[in-house]
Predict the structure of TetR family transcriptional regulator.
Amino acid sequence: MSPDRTNDGDPARTLALLWRDPAAVPAPGPRRRHDLDAVVAAAVDLADAEGLAAVSVRRVAARLGVAPMSLYTYVADRAELLDLMVDAAYRAMTRTDTAGRPWRARLAAVAAENHDLLTRHPWVAEVSTLRPSLGPGQTAKYEHELAALDDAPVDDVTRDACLTHLLLFVRACARDAAEARARTAVAGTDEQWWAAAGPVLARYLDPDRFPRAVRVGTAAGAATGSAHDPDRAYAFGLDRLLDGLAPLLDA
């Protein structure tokens, strides 16, 4: 099965729908009980509740109480619907006013906005956006986030690269956190797992054979209460990422 990605349909038609071109968006009428925004909202709600794999034209139609064929008057296929869903999520994002604050605080706010988005809509992180759909939500998001680097002493290509580096980090951390939540829902908490596995592992993890692994693993586990703490990893990684950008942005 191919991965889900934006801009996987007819680009001209998809862009017209994203920007709500009157020539592409079906006009209201007596036989249309819903508008395009309602169709997209139903798809987003379904993805939030059941995951991206649950989203199909048939399932969205059932959620709206209409025949599946009627939805094809709004969107041509699932790929088109996916572009609209991602753009709708971007349009609804928090936009923090960080004017006048240092670059580090502005980029930290951009990271927090994206982390919040991907926590509320984990499915967005499952969609490859390497070829962005460039709808109004995506474009407004990019415009807002670039403002965090307005006074940076770098050229525009580097400005875009700094933002991309930050967003890829946040995306990876959000996916990691979503996987941890899903694992807990299915297999219990890390504390429960360690209570069962710890006594068994103690028989095999010889500190003379694995001195670093035992010492560091024990210290990290005691500090976080688990083998891995996604929130702690995100906070640590974000600080180090911003430290890494400092030689460029403080120049």
About this structure: The chain has two domains: 11-91, 95-187+232-250. The CA atoms of residues 162 and 245 lie 8 Å apart. The two ends are 46 Å apart (CA to CA).
